[in-house]
Write a structure and sequence with these properties.
The chain has eight helices and two strands, in the order ααααααααββ. Strand 1 and strand 2 (174-181) form a beta hairpin. By secondary structure, the protein is mainly alpha-helical. The longest helix has 29 residues, at 128-156. The protein is 65% helix and 9% strand. Helix 5 packs across helix 7, helix 6 packs across helix 7 and helix 7 (106-121) runs antiparallel to helix 8. It is elongated, with a radius of gyration of 22 Å. The protein has two domains: 2-48 and 158-163 and 172-181; 55-156, no CATH class.
């Protein structure tokens, strides 16, 4: 329990530092001496999007929210309760800005494909062109949600890289240590 509370406090501190505009690499280097958790600390820092990344991808993020809302409305209209069940939490994660989970948008997108494909394949003859067009739009929205989810997840929280750095110890021997580098 103590470790979890400690990680929550560390995460809160990381969020404050990154929101203030401090580069992730600097946050890591400041916090590593007092927290001996190394890669776990790096993963916590990685999961927080930088201010620059948020600003750079803000319009795509808004588009992502709008597309999820449109998909949710379509799923409500066609009464796809499983799709609604998956879309609501994903919409919450996206609206609250938790980009590490954006890849999960694939699930509601899959549920969005079903009504779109139904409209394309089994549309009534008298409403053919309108139904097919609407079906194509729904399918495209579903595909776009998946693509944007994975894209934003990668761009807002890029992976850190591990490299080996050489240094000389007190005896003059060349040693290697693991260094973690962040892309901001």
């Amino acid at each position: 329990m103590d470790n979890r509370v400690n990680k929550k406090q560390i995460k809160k501190l990381i969020i404050e530092k990154v929101k203030s505009g401090m580069p992730k690499q600097q946050v890591f280097e400041e916090m590593i001496p007092e927290n001996k958790i190394g890669k776990d600390l790096a993963k916590l820092i990685q999961s927080v999007p930088s201010v620059q990344a948020k600003n750079k991808f803000k319009s795509i993020h808004v588009l992502f929210i709008v597309l999820l809302i449109v998909l949710l409305l379509v799923l409500i209209i066609v009464r796809d309760y499983a799709g609604i069940f998956w879309t609501c939490p994903i919409l919450y994660l996206v609206a609250t800005g938790q980009p590490r989970h954006y890849g999960w948008a694939l699930l509601p997108a899959i549920y969005g494909l079903a009504p779109g494909i139904q409209l394309i394949l089994w549309s009534p003859q008298d409403e053919g062109i309108i139904s097919v067009t609407l079906g194509i739009i729904i399918v495209l929205i579903s595909i776009l949600i998946s693509v944007i989810g994975f894209y934003l997840s990668r761009k807002l929280t890029p992976n850190f890289t591990e490299t080996k750095e050489s240094y000389e110890d007190d005896d003059g021997n060349t040693r290697y240590r693991l260094a973690l580098r962040f892309k901001d």
